[in-house]
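ENTRY TYPE: paired fold submission
RECORD: A
CONTENT: sequence, then structure tokens
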Amino acid sequence: MKIQFLGAAHEVTGSCTLITACGRRILVDCGMEQGADIYENCDLPVAANTIDCVLLTHAHIDHSGKLPFLTANGYEAPIYTTLATNKLCAIMLMDSAHIQEFEAEWRNRKAKRNGDADYKPLYTSDDVAATMKMFVPCDYSKEYDIFEGIKIRFIDAGHLLGSASIEITITENGITKVLLFSGDVGNVSRPLIRDPQKPEKADVVVIESTYGDRLHGERPDYVKQLTDVIQNTFDRGGNVVVPCFAVGRTQEMLYLIRQIKEKGLIKNHDNFPVWVDSPLAVEATEIYSGGLIDYYDSDTLALLEKGINPIVFQGLNLAVTSDESRFINADTTPKVILSASGMCEAGRIRHHLKHNLWREESTILFVGYQAEGTLGSKLIDGAPSVKLFGEEITVRADIRQIDGISGHADRDMLINWLKNIAPKPEKVFVNHGEDTVCDIFAQSVSSELGISAEAPFNGAEYDIISGECLYGGNHEKIKRNKPNVQRANSVFQRLLQAGKRLLIVIEHNRGGANKDLAKFTDQINALADKWDR
């Protein structure tokens, strides 16, 4: 039995792990990278047509986005996942293919003029269609025998409609090991979907660490936060532009806005318009409204029983065509604009940013995780200007974040998720987190739970039975020539990480002697006084 890490190793996106056991090769997720690549990734070490199956945790592109690429290279085996993930992938992967085909068409027009070679998309719509035929929908909590000696079980991860943690039981040469892949573990008490289901058993765990170095804090009043942002922006005459993941976060925001409208919380802007500007988000919203009751939480089921659609309301507009999208910015009425992509790296959101970033009366509201190096991250970090469509745009809009509205579990939630496993796992591998965060969370698992934990690098391979590291992976970061402003931002990011680490150290000293805590406090205050400018 062996496990090899091929993506999301010391990085947040591109999840992909290869298991070799019982003469079979199994991929867990096959995701696309988003944002800047930190470490050079190794290629898939085996031919696509020699992989026996894929186990998919959920539909987000950083977990599913390269499945059609696998198909284009000869993969023809089952893809096991939940029914909701199956339905969402059908639209998300096709959308990804259309984006790539459009980009290829644009690049090839330019290449033809310059006499350059043709550009080929990673995959096409035909590849997606072929991929979807291989999906095998599975129920939560039911055990499936997929090969001799290998069983799988999906449990609700509470991150996205249909998201799952995957339990894999392998028996080889008389030895049985249970591997558990967390997928993306969800936050609690979120609209529409249930809280994450706690795992019960595992010998080896692969766990995400997106928020492995921080806490969400006390659950904020999302409706109040969103109401305040909308009210203040509309009173200034501006738009609230929300870079929003098309699947999951868009529907959660619609749920909150429906509550705001139902309670009449926005004053003097009756029946304010809300635009969902993303064909993908429109399709996903229809799936969320399409009767997948086995995936909803109790509050959502109660609304449906009363005949209330939890994400539809008066004033909601769905933009599908380009003309409808252009109309949004031509209309001067203050409005809420929900548009993809959530990290501002592509899609129609970039057009809305171009029209609103320079307007001091508008607000750009971030409601999801922003990977380092993305346009969304740069805006949150205070970039004075950004380049969009070849034009430098000055940032005058109010840049805001809603506190705590994350689809990911925080550090303590992840620790508690692991605590539920009895007896303790033999090994925990930490991935799907920023470079330093993976190491920080691995240290937390080791020190607080007494479990051997490490954060593998890309390409790293381990023997599951002995725990021996067979190959340490690629530790070399990609070298880039960055302008001075980016170097400055990088240094500031290091400072932010140091601050987050300090918070963790403070938390670790909870319950310590008062004398030591007082001394520690004085040292922190002295440092703060020195640098308070």
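RECORD: B
CONTENT: sequence, then structure tokens
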Amino acid sequence: MSIANGPEENLINMAETILAPSKFRGQDDDVALIYNDETVTYSQLWVRVNQAGNAFLELGISIGDRVILMVRDTPAFFYVYLGLMKIGAVPIAINLRLNPADVAYTMNDSQARAIILDDVFFSGYQNIAKNVTLRSIIINTDVERRGSYYLPSIMEVAASKLNAVALKLEDPAFWMYSSGTTGKPKGVIHSQKSILASDNLMGQVLNVGPGDRIYGSSKLFFAFSLAHCFLAPIKLGAAVILYPEWPDAESVATVVQKHKPTILLSVPTFYRNMLRAGIVNKPEFKNVRYYLAAGEKLPKNLFDQWMEVTGRPILDGIGATETCFLFLANRPDNISVGTCGVPTPGTEVKLVNNDGVIVTEPNIAGVLWVRMDSVASSYWNMKERTIEVFKDGWYCTNDMCTFNTSGYYEYQGRVDDILKISGQWVSPAEIEAEVLKNKAVSEAAIVGVLNEDGLIRLALFIVVPGLSGPTEQFEKKLTSSLKANLSIYKCPRRIYFLDEMPLTATGKLQRFVLRDIAESRQVGAVLK
């Protein structure tokens, strides 16, 4: 491995660690990326990563500089991400559906040196540029525009050889921003050693290697996909199937039929949608070796239906932005339906009760703590929160879990009221605060309600004292406001009008009563 600026002992570069094994295996001509009708071989990937890294150096981007990525799932994502890491810069791929205010916040919070974006996001960035404190370098991946650099052009003239910068195991490699459970996204700092966890599940358990084709319906900015559809597969020599648009059940089926993945990753919502669409009875779905699910709990009835149609089980697991890789997962040879599985290789877990004592008996709930190579080092600019959840290599997930007599862990929910919707954490308080900006609304409450498939969805309850007669116009106005100011996954599916909120004798909101109302009533405005 060629690493510049020092001896190799105790030094690492994540990009080099990811790419170098393909050289040792003689995979130069093997396919690394599949994109529509285009393929990129490992040798081509290596060259283009080097060109991207050299191009960034020419622009003055260097060690430690943070760079925001708003790039869809295309080969350019790989060139840019690995090219930045190879020169010691820090890529930050952000949620492509963040609202403009959160994009501006993320750029300011990270003090981004540059932003690299597809042209579909260019006008959106221009609209918030005035709110960005640093004058960042702008690089457009697919369209030439005045005032920005054009990625293909700057790569074309860049050298094809590049020595990787040698870094310490604890040096930053990449950042991720959480879903913003406290109202604003948190910068999660991952170090170079995170790549050491890449073989834990995909390699040791699923035996991913040359000849495998990996596809995930979740986009690469999500930890689930970044870890298991990028970092691990490329290091292990598999091919990654890319789809740039936001997927639906039909598009996932098209990808499966055309590119025939051997391993498919998705979230329970998508597995449910594909079953409902009646598309999983195609032969290609029966030929997928492994299905993985994460992001939200996989209901047993959904597992059973999928198994009946495809003959293949869905391996449910759980991870976090703070760990990147899954820390609990079911195994192909030992599945416990309805659980998150057992610790992945190289992972330690423990449950801690309210008294700070480690739980040793089955079926007793505790807060889940995790220790593995890919645990983040800290939150950016959040010292107190970092001290609370990161201790001696352990990470406090704030998930309540139990383990059964067979050692399988079962998810019981969050410690607080935070809800997980479509794989992303959502704060009721944030949504309620946004609703209450409407002066006609005197009270607002968000609860999570199980739908008919056993998945959690948001329901909004409001008290509007001055409202009389039909509610359609008010609902329409409120809906438009929420969709304009919140990320789409934070918008409630149904709205219920109440004369008053259910309260305890001491004046505390009884959320369980609201959940009962939502589950028993069929009325309510559905957000489209």
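NOTES ON RECORD B: The longest helix spans residues 42-58. The two ends are 52 Å apart (CA to CA).
STATUS: closed
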